[in-house]
Amino acid sequence: MSISCLVMDHDDTLVNSTATVHFPCFVEYTQKYFPDYHCTLEHYFLKNFDPGVVPFFRDEVGMNAEQMRHEEKFWNAYVQRHVPKAYPGIREILLEQKKRGGYVCVVSHSLRDNILRDFKENDLPAPDLVFGWDEPPAERKPSPHALYQIMERLKVKPEEMLVVDDLKPGYDMALSAGVPFAAAGWANDIPEIESFMRKNCGLYFKTIEELKAYLFA
Predict the structure, then answer these.
(1) Are 209 and 105 within one domain?
(2) How many structural domains does the chain have?
(3) What percent of the chain shows pLDDT beyond 90?
(4) Considering only CA atoms, which of 29, 212, 15 is closest in space to residue 119?
(5) 1: confidence class by pLDDT, cuts 50, 70, 90
(6) 72 lies in the same domain as 122
(7) CA–CA–CA angle 191, 144, 184 (5° rounding)
(8) What pLDDT shows up at residue 183?
(9) Given this model, what pLDDT does residue 187 score?
(10) What is the DSSP string of 109-160?
């Protein structure tokens, strides 16, 4: 399989971050500012899957716009002190993609500087383009804006790309842009998420080894 441009999600696709960084941060924040709210890791995964982090914080946790901005600052400060580990095998995939003359791009809900920091700390080859939470709200996933930018800047066609993501916003983004999508299933074992991804996505990989075999066999 030859993919000219591999478009990777960051959290729970490249790096193991929700369980080790983002959820502990969320628990610390809500204990301090929303003490009546409680959440399990599984529920946190599910809500990030659908409807996504902003509706989750707004409609379930009860944050208003100002509180969400405050939480974002709290989260960013926390992330500066906690570097997630890349999943074993990810570095080899990115290196092989680059070796074959392909591109590696990242479209994520993490901040660009944090993504680049995680790449450096995990000795991953630098991505060609990064689109993170720094983008205007209307241009973040699930908007297809980043994919259109990648097509324009790197001169690649939709069918020459593959989006790899563990959550529904990435699937929705790829679907909107007509780009093939592969679900990353290695971050969790939550039946509702796996069932949706297997049913709706053209490709589902439970392990990184399966993705590698598909890309380079």
Answers:
(1) yes
(2) 2
(3) 92
(4) 15
(5) low
(6) no
(7) 30
(8) 96
(9) 93
(10) SS-HHHHHHHHHHTTPPPPSEEE-TTS-GGGSTTSSHHHHHHHHHHT--GGG
Phi and psi (nearest 5°) for 156?
Answer: -120, 150
Which residues have a Cβ under 8 Å from the Cβ of 152 and sit 6 or more positions away?
none
Domain with 25 in it: 18-80
Mean pLDDT in residue range 137-161: 97
Looking at the fold, whether 203 and 123 belong to one and the same domain comes out as: yes
* 96-102, long-range: CB < 8 A, 24+ apart: 96/212, 96/215, 96/216, 97/3, 97/6, 97/215, 98/125, 100/2, 100/216, 102/2, 102/3, 102/4, 102/5, 102/6
* Band of pLDDT at residue 178, cut at 50, 70 and 90: very high
Considering the domain architecture, whether residues 11 and 109 belong to the same structural domain is answered as yes
Q: Please compute the mean of the pLDDT values over residues 29-33 and round it to a whole number.
A: 97
Mean pLDDT value of segment 191-208: 93
Radius of gyration over alpha carbons of the chain, in Å? 17
- What was the pLDDT predicted at 117? 96
CA geometry: angle at 26 spanning 22 and 28, to 5°? 120
**What CATH number is attached to the domain comprising 185?**
3.40.50.1000
| Omega cis (within 30) before 142 | yes
182 membership: H or E segment, kind and range? strand 181-184
State how beta strands 85-86 and 15-16 pair: antiparallel
